[in-house]
Write a structure and sequence with these properties.
This protein is of the alpha+beta class and 499 residues long. It has eight helices and 22 strands. GO terms for molecular function: heme binding; metal ion binding.
């Protein structure tokens, strides 16, 4: 390999590696708060798509460099120091490429993610150790050493071929998906939505298992999720199970203190509670299959133009293409006793209402005719709150306070002793009715594992719902007593019906 060809590949490698680092740091910041100090330096928006693009580019450069080296190695005579540092670079790049594609393919992604992060820091070390000695030796002349002095038509052709091939591979990989076979059953078969899954049909249904990563409170931020699906002529049933060592139903309880009632929290003020919160599970559906939830996740503190910053700096969910994605949000306290999952959707960014602290961008609830849960306080403040209602029986210990099993709060009747806990969730009625109640669901926790059953009509005719049919793509996320810090996976899971 001639020197000028080596320099061209070297420049392309610098660009792709720096791009991979910057986008990778932004992705890591979602689950690693200590990186917040450099958040202002990182790009925002649909970062996963860019990160995959840089990954494709780096992979092609590794292949091109290896091919050139086997055919006609570039001859140089580095010092022992540079030989050692170069080997560090080679090892780092190989680990980054292999582990990154393993995460993308869901191949031992729990371990691959850890290797990927270690390899990234090795690459940062390589950058520093490799560059500083040249800068010390050559000063400003370092640019003369790393920039090509004369380019040939061949160098432009090599670059153009790599770019075109990279765009083709990126277009293919960004839309690839796993597959879940939906088993057909007779219309006469009855499946009880009770979270127990005792019916024989569940035992014979094929299982797809996906490792989800990057969540709070799970071991190493990861949990395996197994999914089964059944369908008759009218409805689709899902059986979803995931590992969770603890059953968390302690949802933002109100604690009586010397200074009045306080919301027990550890991050709720910035809408990122990770201690006093219920377990949850989310299923997103789309007729598209792009990575990052069909390109609906936008990372950063202000990733959407002309919209407000978010409090936690992690990003927003919104569809900037104008299409709607369906979102089922099961909540262990707020919806489980309703035997429902909260039927929501991800749409275009909503208008920001003045005076409302939390802006949720495209994450919104379907409409409803009646039914609701509300928080059991008048106005939230981190300094203290006034409850809306008190239980009829002061000795009751409930996760949810029913409206008709409680009475309005009056200060003169507040004789509760210091240390008393009250539920923060108040049911106005037993369950939702209308569009928001389209998904029936029930979860049961046993021996460190949640089992969740869900069912919905194939087509609800709602403009906020996605039809369940062959080609519909889904993503799943688990929350371990966390408000927004959920697990995730990259590639979609595409449904395949035999009907």
């Amino acid at each position: 390999m001639e020197r000028q060809t080596f320099i061209v590949l070297h420049i392309l490698a610098i660009v792709t590696i720096i791009g991979s680092m910057l986008t990778g740091f932004r992705i890591s910041l979602v689950s690693q708060d200590w990186l917040a100090a450099i958040s202002v330096l990182l790009p925002q928006g649909a970062i996963h798509t860019w990160h995959l693009g840089f990954a494709v580019g780096l992979t092609l450069l590794v292949i091109a460099y290896t091919g050139y080296s086997l055919r006609a190695p570039f001859r140089s005579y580095p010092s022992i120091y540079h030989k050692i540092i170069n080997y560090l670079g080679y090892i780092s790049i190989c680990l980054i490429v292999l582990s990154g594609w393993a995460v993308w393919a869901n191949f031992h992604s729990h371990y691959a993610r850890s290797i990927h992060q270690v390899a990234m820091w090795l690459m940062v070390s390589y950058f520093v150790l490799h560059a500083w000695i040249y800068i010390l030796q050559k000063g400003r002349g370092v640019f003369g050493a790393i920039l090509p002095k004369r380019l040939k038509l061949m160098h432009g052709a090599i670059t153009l071929c790599l770019v075109i091939l990279g765009l083709f591979i990126h277009t293919f990989t960004v839309n690839t998906s796993h597959q879940l076979e939906v088993q057909t059953m007779a219309d006469t078969v009855f499946i009880e939505i009770d979270g127990k899954a005792t019916e024989a049909q569940w035992q014979s249904a094929p299982t797809y298992t996906v490792t989800t990563i990057g969540g709070a409170n799970f071991d190493n931020g990861s949990t395996e999720v197994s999914i089964k699906a059944l369908a008759n002529q009218y409805e689709t049933y899902f059986l979803i199970s995931w590992q969770d060592k603890s059953k968390s139903t302690n949802h933002l309880p109100l604690l009586k203190t010397d200074n009045g009632w306080q919301v027990q929290e550890n991050g709720f003020y910035r809408f990122d509670e990770r201690t006093f919160y219920e377990d949850k599970f989310a299923v997103m559906l789309s007729d598209g299959c792009e990575i990052a939830g069909d390109n609906t996740y936008h990372s950063g503190s202000k990733p959407i133009k002309n919209k407000p910053k978010n409090w936690h700096g992690k990003g927003y969910h919104a569809s900037l293409d104008g299409k709607v994605r369906d979102l089922w949000h099961w909540k262990a306290v707020r919806t489980n006793d309703m035997y429902l999952a909260d039927d929501n959707f991800i749409g275009p960014p909503s208008e920001h209402l003045k005076g409302k602290r939390r802006y949720s961008a495209g994450y919104q609830a379907d409409g409803k005719e009646s039914g609701a849960y509300v928080m059991n306080w008048q106005w939230y403040s981190s300094q203290g709150v006034s409850p809306k209602r008190l239980p009829m029986d002061p000795q009751s210990h409930q996760a949810v306070l029913p409206w008709f099993g409680s009475k309005p709060y009056q200060h003169q009747q507040d004789t509760y002793p210091i240390g008393t806990l009250l539920p923060s969730v108040l049911y106005r009625s037993n369950r939702f009715e209308g569009d928001r109640a389209d998904v029936r669901a029930r979860g049961e926790w046993h021996d460190g594992r949640w089992t969740l059953e869900l069912v919905r009509k194939h087509n609800t005719q709602s403009k906020y719902d996605i039809p369940l049919q062959t080609g519909t793509c889904m993503w799943v996320s688990a929350f371990d007593h966390a408000q927004i810090a959920h697990t995730r996976h990259i590639k979609a899971i595409k449904l395949r019906y035999a009907l």
